[in-house]
Amino acid sequence: MESVFSGPVYVVRDNIDTDQIIPAQYLNLVPTIPEEYEKLGAYALCGLPESLYSMRYVDSGELDSRYPIVVAGRNFGCGSSREHAPIALGSAGCKVVLAESFARIFFRNSVATGELYPCECVDRLCDVLKTGDVVKVDLDATTVTAQNLGKVWKFKALGDVRPVVDAGGLFNYARKTGMIPK
Amino acid sequence: MTLAEKILARASGVPYVKPGDVVEPRVDLAMSHENAALVLHQFHEIFKGLAFEPQLWDPSKVAIIFDHRVPAESPKTASNQKRVREFASWQAISKFHDIRGDTGGICHQVLPENGYVRPGQVVVGTDSHTTSHGALGALAFGIGATEMASVWSLGRALNVEVPATIKVVVSGKFKPFVGPKDLILHLIGKITAQGANFKVLEFHGPTIRTMSTSGRLVLCNMSVEAGATAGIVPADAETARYLKEEAGVTEALDLVSPDADATYEAVIEIDASGLEPQIACPHTVDNVKPITAVAGKPIHQVVIGSCTNGRLDDLEVAAKIIRGKKVSSGTRMLVFPASGRIYRQALGKGYLGAFVQAGAVVMNPGCGPCLGVHEGALGDGEVALSTTNRNFKGRMGNPNSEVYLCSPAVAAASALKGVITDPREDH
């Protein structure tokens, strides 16, 4: 099981709502259909205003992002219950979202779908890091390391959430633990 | 125990719970809308490779209501709805509400008006505004499609962390043209969009006790805009009246209350008599200002309706202001009654006629422009004033537009002037 993720971060601010993560027009894409899952990735974070986010999370014409780690401020994923939000990010290649705090439903959907690790970090990383900075996220050590800045931060341990995401979501976890018979 | 704790303890078969405990409550009602298509896919995933057919734990406790894209705007949506319709028929889901003028409508209105929600229940829905149903003394919260698929098969919600509760005590009489929408916008502005994240807002006080169920639905509906897991109003005589008289419930009700010695994480007191009409300005619901701060702002579209403010009393307030007058020539006004039943009641009382004669467009019940994928989209640079619940960037289908949120009275008065207008000016 992968426990260390390295790569450039994409930095967003507070209250990034689900309409910015995946606008409602794409919600009739059904993620259990593989080609529709792929398509959702192309639209991840496409609702962020161009005026504030001139560097896009997914470049035009691409299905995947260059940024495996998203760094956010407070209340990431507020708004709708749409599961497409963590799915679009996961489909685009996001592995970890490091936020100061998460909205409840987004947090639970990230775990249930197993699309990404939602990590809460008390430090306001969105003020320190900028898009493109390279970090290393170590889930076992619960640390974020930015080598070029010479900085290490701690995040809150994922606890019971971790094995569910590790397994690839709720159903895979239930199969693994025998809740769903094999 | 607080009301949420009491309901979770009962539903989990334990005598006592406290915030932070993890429980697996049985579910009394599991609601989905068009996203049942997604739940259905996930539901089949659970049973993949097993020797038996997928079966709902209890079809009588599953509700599916089409409201987000009605009638379908595209072949893709129509096909998703078709699959769900076939599933509902196969599983004999009696609480399936199709696209119909008699029994259809927005899920958060259809559930209460049919008496599906009762005090003390645990209600889950694949919609964030499932918090609405706390207005009837139920613990109601939003979940994702994958979690719903597991509820469909088990009849329980897994790994529910008991939330802490914030007690909101409201006293004082509203001024004319000020009401529940202004109260909840004020509260969200005060505690911010994440002020109640992972917590329950439990509403108390004389203002709540004398408030109609319709008004309580507004408070609980928008509790999620402060991040709340749920909003809840302890059931009382008004709850019993609503369920009996308006929802046709004949069974005995269990009007469960919080304990007198319940522990609350915080208590917020609000004097409603001091409130002015409130406006949530772009692009977050907690960017709330009194109307005087934004009066005069030109608007291109007014929307009255939605699960927040599309009920009969909302339409009544608006119709009284509009009747015999004309919507400003630079402004479009769209009205969306919350259900077929409300549509017919409003038709009978002459409200819809008053809207149409004033130049408004009356649309069919549904979510309509509130989620911006179906109808009523905004043009570049346009501004909407809406009685809906979210003003996120792009919410009405165009990231280059703005949405302001307000009460039905403010929306109606503003439609006549073409600018944000205090309804107390001329009335």
Main traits of this protein?
heterodimer, A: 182 residues, alpha/beta, Aconitase, domain 4, 7 helices, 7 strands, B: 427 residues, Aconitase, domain 3, five-stranded parallel sheet, 14 helices, 18 strands
Structural write-up:
- The complex is a heterodimer of chains A (182) and B (427).
- Chain A has 182 residues and is of the alpha/beta class.
- Chain A has a single domain, classed as Aconitase, domain 4 (Alpha-Beta Barrel).
- Helix content of chain A is 27%, strand content 18%.
- Chain A has seven helices and seven strands; from the N terminus they run βααβαβαβαβββαα.
- Chain A has helices at residues 18-21, 34-42, 84-92, 104-113, 125-128, 161-167, 170-176, and strands spanning 4-11, 69-72, 96-99, 117-120, 134-138, 143-146, 151-154.
- Chain A has a seven-stranded mixed beta sheet.
- In chain A, helix 2 (34-42) packs across helix 3 (84-92), helix 4 crosses helix 6 (161-167) and helix 6 (161-167) crosses helix 7 (170-176).
- The longest helix of chain A has 10 residues, at 104-113.
- The model of chain A has no long low-confidence stretch (mean pLDDT 96).
- With 427 residues, chain B is an alpha/beta fold.
- Chain B has two domains: 3-270, Aconitase, domain 3; 278-417, Aconitase, domain 3.
- Chain B is built from 14 helices and 18 strands.
- In chain B, the strands form five sheets. In chain B, strands 4-3-2-5-6 form a five-stranded parallel beta sheet, with helices on both faces. In chain B, strands 16-15-14-17-18 form a five-stranded parallel beta sheet.
- The longest helix of chain B is centred in the first third of the chain and has 16 residues, at 75-90.
- Chain B is globular.
- At the A-B interface, helix 4 and helix 7 of A face helix 2, helix 3 and helix 5 of B.
SSE layout and pairings?
The complex is a heterodimer of chains A (182) and B (427).
Chain A: E1 4-11, H1 18-21, H2 34-42, E2 69-72, H3 84-92, E3 96-99, H4 104-113, E4 117-120, H5 125-128, E5 134-138, E6 143-146, E7 151-154, H6 161-167, H7 170-176
Parallel strand pairs in A: 1-2, 2-3, 3-4
Antiparallel strand pairs in A: 1-5, 5-6, 6-7
Chain B: H1 3-12, E1 22-23, E2 29-32, H2 36-47, E3 62-65, H3 75-90, E4 95-97, H4 107-113, E5 122-125, E6 139-142, H5 145-154, E7 160-161, E8 164-171, H6 180-191, E9 199-204, H7 206-209, H8 213-223, E10 230-232, H9 237-246, E11 266-271, E12 278-280, E13 288-290, E14 301-305, H10 306-309, H11 312-322, E15 332-336, H12 340-348, H13 351-358, E16 361-362, E17 383-386, E18 402-405, H14 408-417
Parallel strand pairs in B: 2-3, 2-5, 3-4, 5-6, 8-9, 8-11, 9-10, 14-15, 14-17, 15-16, 17-18
Antiparallel strand pairs in B: 1-7, 12-13
Helix pairs in contact in B: 2-5, 6-8, 11-13, 11-14
